[in-house]
Write a structure and sequence with these properties.
four-stranded antiparallel β-sheet, 8 helices, alpha+beta, 2 domains, globular, about 40% helix, Jelly Rolls
Amino acid sequence: MEAHRYELAAKTENPLGIAAFFSEEQFGMLEEIMYPKRASAGNCVFREGDVSDKLYYIRSGKIKLKKTTEDGKEFIISILQAGDLLCEPEDGMTQQHSYCAEVMEHTELGVIQRKDLDIILYRNGDFAMRFMKWMALLHRITESKFRDLLLFGKPGALASTLIRLSNSYGIACPEGIRISLKLTNAELADFIGTTRESVNRMLSALKDDGAIELRKGYIVILSLEKLRGICHCPSCPQCPKEICRI
């Protein structure tokens, strides 16, 4: 059983994943308290309002985090991949999930009981400091997303989303950067709180401007500079990819 746990929790090739924030010994501490779980596409790891007493290390697969408004509108908060840790911030007051985690494809998880993590944090000061830095990074990611959504209109929000997707799922190709995650225009619309029709128009404008092109359903970014100009991000080359991610 212990060997199976270790195999399930092995590090992945995600340079922006949780393992990058810890030494191998410290990551091994997390591995020791994980137990395996599998989830099929379309199912939810948890739903909004469920008790938040576990963390989930993604061994393989992808998970979509989404929030539903009172009028039924869905917003996509993030799409996590192998190597990411799915964790609801603990504020000591609320113990409920504030969003839904929907499985996009067959996913293998390492589940961590929050009470077991608390023991590690209490006993290991350096581990606790690194975990706090990782939590602070999550806060900065969320803060930067709100900035892009609120300050530069829907075109800026879409440009920012495409840049973040390229950092999280981009693959270099002769033309530029191909986003390996295939998303519908409706899903892109859910990232920025607009309609599919609006995204259709904005993508067409970006294609006409030579910023992107579509190939077999995948978005290829031809000019990051043009996208950066739309979302007013002149410091983008210096902005850490750990923050500028989806």
